[in-house]
């Protein structure tokens, strides 16, 4: 399957994203970064515990050939999104000090942690609010790792799956009392 850029109406979301994609391809020096927030669907290696299932076989056998902290035997949504956008896959937040500032400045950062949710879950790792707080701390940091220019030229990938629901049900919640949104 090959995707091509096609300009749509200016007022539509398709027009906005089409223009953004076109601008990125036309001006590669204006490199876009990817900042990621979420759970295991987008976590590229933030959970460094040796007892984490993502650090054990069979995870990673397809990519990168060994367990890498991804909750997959290969690539996760973040990897596919970065490739599609033509940007480098973002560095996991947990290993930012190991890769050096230069590499961080040319790449985005992945703040996602497998097992987390929008709210606290059974996994005692940064939930969505904390992930956004970590992003803001790095943005306000004197190092300039995340500049205003980065924010304006970058994209955010947000992924939230069922961990909040699972936590609710695991702590004696009931599917019958899950609040529904009113129209």
UniProtKB/TrEMBL annotation:
Whether Protein biosynthesis counts among this entry's keywords is no
This entry's Gene Ontology molecular function terms read:
hydrolase activity, acting on ester bonds
Source superkingdom: Eukaryota
Query: Which BP terms does GO give this entry?
Result: lipid catabolic process
InterPro entries assigned to the protein according to its UniProt record, in alphabetical order: GDSL, SGNH_hydro_sf
Q: Which keywords has UniProt assigned to this entry?
A: Hydrolase, Lipid degradation, Lipid metabolism
- Please state which protein family the record places this protein in: Belongs to the 'GDSL' lipolytic enzyme family.
Among PANTHER family, the record links this protein to: GDSL ESTERASE_LIPASE, OSJNBB0059K02.9 PROTEIN
Q: What is the protein named?
A: GDSL esterase/lipase
